[in-house]
Write a structure and sequence with these properties.
With 120 residues, chain A is mainly α. Chain A contains 3 helices and no strands. The chains are: A mainly alpha (120), B mainly alpha (941). At the A-B interface, helix 1, helix 2 and helix 3 of A face helix 27, helix 28, helix 29, helix 30 and helix 31 of B. Chain A: Belongs to the CPA3 antiporters (TC 2.A.63) subunit C family.
Chain lengths: 120, 941
């Protein structure tokens, strides 16, 4: 079993899980799905630079064998942006729940009673 | 220069009127009349040279790349038109002063009117067809504003909307036609296009160009079957009807046909489309006018008919017919504007426009009746008025068309139309001014003051002059304008009332006699017509509009369903289809031959953990907190993978982000419903699972295919080689972030800052309204520790804070050369502060915080941008970094790079955004908890 296979199949599992969860009808599951998808995308971007073991991209004279620094730099910012996006989506779903009393995103009216009646 | 001044004057007046809308009526009329008069004076000064054959031109380059210049010219046709616009404009402004009631906002009215005047002048003077289009649309817009001037009236609003829909729709067709015309002719300059008639007519685009341009012209000039907007536009104040809807705007279509005559006319297609449309319109309008009872509606249908006459003449495509058309433009402008003003006076004095409630006004309003009767005589084509001459010319040309082998129907139908127009004209005059006295709402109406009647005196005198001294008054202008229309030397011109006994005279006489008889026998027909449902295109139009709106709503509802699931499914499905398409194309997505790396047992175990954790997250529908635990397992495995695969920076970032992400979700889940969701139906789940499986396998295969191929030489080697010599750092990833690709990073931190601000905007008002009510009613539905702030936790985090800050600083400083940097340092610092919030509570921590998140984000972006701009001061490009080595006593050799300032900015923004998200969220939760506690205390007390 090669490292490449592990990474590729890991990406496959994460993508499949992410897509499935993102297609669910509640905000929290959608958020989880997007998180899984983000992991998959970041790993994929990273894998574009090929897998290298024990050659961190720290410059030293004469070294020619090193991990590709560019995908790493791009993925680093992507990880941080992913956090920003996740935070925004989480807050958005929270606010929409607070406004509407429902955490559904499937467009079907929820049978949740309005505030003041639900937990009498 | 005079041309530019001519062009600017009305717009300047419109602006002044709009700004001074609160000023007095005298001032408003002064500005509008002054601008019109000044324009007219400029035009008269230029007239001799233009009529002598040297057009004025002016040009300012505007968008040369598009072939669009502010290019103006004044040739005889433009002169004729501009003269009409300014002359009648001046009279209408004076008339409006008398017409508008004291309380009406004259500033607004005249401002719109001058805007319209400017747009019309623009059409007349444009020497560039793209420029002309702009003014063309502007006339539709200003017409909309003017028709809807009395905006509290429903008929005015509907009429305005209908006029805009029809003329604006035609304008769209015209845009397409003009663009095609410019392509076919190879230029958008009108003067150039006019010389390329043969090229354009030989072009395969010619039928399309002609059809589209005619759509524009016919809608504007109210030709059948687009005529219906004009009667509804009569809801406008009467000065507007006199100006826009008889004398000028509706003639813009006729003007366009005349303007493009050398390019488009002459073909059979032109004849059949233009002449027959004109003929049908002429006949139709005259017929309908005979049976309407509202003064302005009669005039509107008469205008439609007369416009049809001009269009038909231009459609004949002969120079003599063009002469007749040009002369009739002048005649019609004079008598029809006078008639509209007359109708306005009658309406003003008697309070009604219903011809059945009027009669015998000649005795009470002698001046009005005289002027009205004279103008009607011109409309009917009776001698000695100009209308007689042009109508006779029209009949003669219709005979010529038949002699040229066109259908004998042309003269026959033209004579019938002339007969009908005699009939409605006679009815219009006799029913109002003669016979049994009927005075509408008023007992004794009288002639109005000079402001209202003066302009129509002038117009009637002109109409009379056109008949008595046609060669002196109109001759030179008609001759030169005809020359401009046909693009050559004008034909010999002989305008006179008497041309001896000829067929045209016979047809004319026949029309008068039969017309008079027709009027005599009108009543039974009218009674018969009254019994049937009124034929009104408005209902068809409204029906069509309603249908369009309904279909659009259906379409947008079909696409824009309020279901995120459907959007995402489409999105994923399309992405998967693209992937399948790429895999199926020849070449496909084969794996490469690159040597793979052996996997250690530890790696296999980690992989296994990842797969299992993902499976649990997906399956964990009921245990939401447990799902979060397994999400963090996945994040941890990925961080380990980064460690193993030579990406220490990524591993550090991933771990730190993982912590804040989980904290965020925990806080959110705290407030979100924890009720287990209903499962979707089994088919739905199977469908989604299938899509997910295909997406997963496809993505995994793509990753595999990439990783097993050899890496070609990429830009990365440049980064590697220049990192130390150029960027002064050995951590290539960090140097890339703060130097090579610093512009990307700058954009990214700005996005992050915006996300932080958006979160603030979303949460800050959450305490109000429905959301606030729900928050207040929120109850703990999870078991929780009886101790709010466990002491061990509090003490440990407080001790950790300085240590964590120190670690952050350390990571920050070493970042340029070793794994670390602004992003990671900022995340570490954020976590340290967040721990205080968690352990000691929101209030305690918030009280001790010195810097808010907003300034932090702002300062961060500013520092980063300033660093980038700093390099400009030294003549380098934006975001170029610089570095040097300094010896500091005791510390030793130290490297300082400007990139470090940039990294400081990055760190500030990241801390700000992370804190914003989490602190705001915990604040909301805190508020909810506090509300609950208060409520509990109240109930227990």
């Amino acid at each position: 079993m090669s490292l490449e296979f592990l990474i590729a199949s890991g990406i496959a599992v994460l993508t499949a899980g992410g897509v499935y969860l993102a297609l669910r009808g509640r905000t929290f599951q959608v958020v989880l799905g997007l998180t899984l998808l983000s992991y998959a995308v970041n790993l994929f971007l990273f894998a574009i630079g090929r897998l290298v073991v024990d050659r961190p991209p720290l410059f030293a004279k004469g070294v020619t064998d090193y991990a590709d620094p560019l995908p790493q730099a791009l993925v680093l910012t992507a990880i941080v942006i992913t956090f920003g996006m996740t935070a925004l989506v989480v807050i958005l779903s929270l606010r929409s729940f607070l406004e509407s009393g429902s955490d559904q995103v499937d467009g079907i009216a929820d049978a949740v009673p309005g505030p003041g009646q639900d937990r009498a | 220069m005079p041309l530019m001044l001519l062009m600017v004057l009305p717009f300047a007046a419109a602006l002044m009127l709009a700004l001074g809308a609160r000023g007095g009526r005298r001032m408003h009329v002064g500005i509008a009349a002054g601008a019109s008069a000044a324009g007219l004076a400029l035009l008269l000064l230029a007239a001799p040279a233009v009529l002598a054959g040297t057009p004025l031109t002016a040009r300012i380059a505007w968008i040369p790349a598009l072939g669009l210049d502010l290019s103006l010219w004044l040739d005889p046709l433009g002169l004729l038109f501009a003269g009409l616009i300014l002359g009648i404009g001046l009279l209408v402004v004076i008339y409006a002063q008398g017409y508008l009631a004291k309380a009406e906002p004259t500033g607004r009215f005249l401002s719109f009117l001058m805007l319209f005047q400017g747009a019309m002048i623009g059409i007349a003077l444009s020497n560039n067809i793209l420029l002309m289009l702009i003014f063309w649309e502007l006339t539709s817009l200003s017409s909309f504003l003017l028709i809807g001037f009395w905006r509290d009236r429903a008929d005015a609003r509907q009429g305005a909307r209908m006029a805009l829909a029809v003329t604006g729709g035609g304008g769209l067709a015209l845009i397409a036609g003009m663009l095609l015309l410019g392509q076919a002719a190879g230029s958008y300059e009108l003067a150039t296009i006019l010389t390329r008639g043969a090229v354009v007519q030989a072009s395969p685009l010619y039928p399309a160009i002609l059809t589209l341009v005619l759509l524009g012209a016919f809608t504007k000039s109210a030709q059948f079957p687009f005529h219906f907007w004009l009667p509804h536009a009569m809801a406008a104040p009467t000065p507007v009807s006199a100006y826009l809807h008889s004398a000028t705007m509706v003639k813009a279509g006729v003007f366009l046909l005349a303007r493009l005559w050398p390019v488009l006319a002459g073909s059979d297609l032109w004849f059949y489309l233009v002449a027959s449309t004109g003929l049908v319109t002429m006949l139709f309008g005259a017929g309908v006018a005979l049976f309407r009872n509202d003064l302005k509606t009669i005039l509107a249908y008469s205008t439609i008919s007369q416009l049809g006459l001009m269009v038909m003449l231009l459609g004949f495509g002969t120079p003599a017919a063009a002469t007749a058309a040009v002369f009739h433009i002048l005649n019609h402008a004079a008598f029809k504007a006078a008639l509209f003003m007359n109708a306005g006076i009658v309406d003003h004095e008697t309070g009604t426009r219903d011809i059945r409630r009027l009669g015998g006004l000649a005795a009470l309003m002698p001046l009005t009746a005289t002027l009205g009767t004279l103008a009607v005589a011109a409309m009917a084509g009776l001698p000695p008025l100009g209308g007689f001459i042009s109508k006779e010319m029209m009949l003669e040309q219709s005979l010529h068309a038949a002699q040229d082998g066109r259908s004998w129907l042309v003269p026959l139908l033209a004579t019938i139309a002339a007969t009908l127009s005699v009939a409605y004209s006679l009815r219009y005059a006799t029913a109002q001014f003669f016979g049994r006295r009927a005075t509408g709402d008023v007992a004794a109406p009288h002639d109005p003051g000079m402001a209202m009647i003066g302009p129509s005196i002038v117009l009637v005198l002109v109409a009379l002059g056109f008949g008595l001294l046609p060669m002196t008054i109109a001759g030179p202008l008609v001759r030169a304008a005809t020359g401009a229309v046909i693009g050559g030397s004008p034909p010999a011109l002989d305008l006179a009332l008497w041309h001896g006994i000829n067929p045209a005279l016979g047809m004319s006489a026949l029309a008068v006699v039969i017309g008079a008889l027709l009027l005599w026998r009108r009543a039974p027909v009218a009674r018969w017509l009254d019994g049937r449902p009124a034929l009104d295109a408005k209902r068809l139009f409204d029906g069509a509009m309603a249908a369009i709106v309904a279909r659009s709503r259906d379409a947008s509802l079909a696409i824009h369903a309020p279901s995120l699931q459907r959007y995402l499914f489409m999105l994923f499905a399309v992405a998967v289809l693209f992937g399948i398409d790429a895999a199926l194309t020849p070449g496909g997505l084969p794996a490469g031959t690159r040597a793979t790396l052996p996997a250690s047992p530890v790696a296999v175990v980690a992989w296994f953990a990842l797969v299992v954790a993902t499976g649990i997250v997906v399956a964990m529908q009921r245990q939401r907190f447990l799902a979060l635990v397994f999400i963090s397992v996945i994040g941890l495995v990925i961080a380990l993978a980064f460690v193993h695969l030579s990406a220490p920076d990524l591993a550090l970032t991933q771990i730190a982000v993982e912590v804040v992400t989980i904290l965020l979700m925990l806080l959110a889940l705290h407030l979100l419903p924890k009720v287990p969701p209903q499962l979707s139906s089994l088919p739905r789940r199977s469908r989604d699972a299938l899509l997910a499986a295909v997406a997963g396998i496809g993505t995994g295969w793509a990753a595999w295919a990439v990783m097993t191929r050899d890496l070609r030489d990429t830009v990365s080697s440049f980064h590697w080689a220049n990192s130390y010599p150029g960027g002064g750092g050995t951590n290539v990833v960090n140097v890339t972030l703060v130097d090579f690709r610093a512009f990307d990073t700058l954009g990214e931190i700005i996005v992050l800052g915006i996300a932080g601000l958006a979160i603030y905007a979303l949460l800050e008002p959450a305490a109000r309204g429905t959301a606030g009510r729900r928050l207040r009613e929120w109850r703990h539905d999870m078991p929780h520790s009886p101790e709010r702030h466990p002491m061990m936790f509090v003490m440990a985090t407080r001790l950790l804070l300085p240590l964590a800050l120190l670690v952050g600083l350390y990571i920050f400083l070493r970042g340029h050369n070793q794994p670390g940097g602004g992003f990671i340092a900022a995340l570490v610092v954020s976590i340290a502060i967040l721990l205080q919030y968690l352990a000691s509570g929101f209030d305690w921590t918030d009280d001790r915080r010195r810097i808010g998140e907003h300034p932090l984000i702002a300062v961060g972006v500013l520092i980063a941008t300033a660093t980038g701009l700093g390099s400009l001061v030294f003549g380098a490009r934006f975001l170029t970094s610089s570095f040097g080595y300094f010896h500091i006593p005791l510390v030793g050799e130290v490297e300082l790079a400007t990139a470090m300032f940039f990294d400081t900015g990055v760190a500030c923004v990241v801390v700000g955004a992370v804190m914003m998200a989490l602190a705001q969220l915990s604040h909301v939760a805190q508020r909810a908890a506090r509300n609950r506690d208060q409520a509990d205390e109240e109930t227990s007390a």
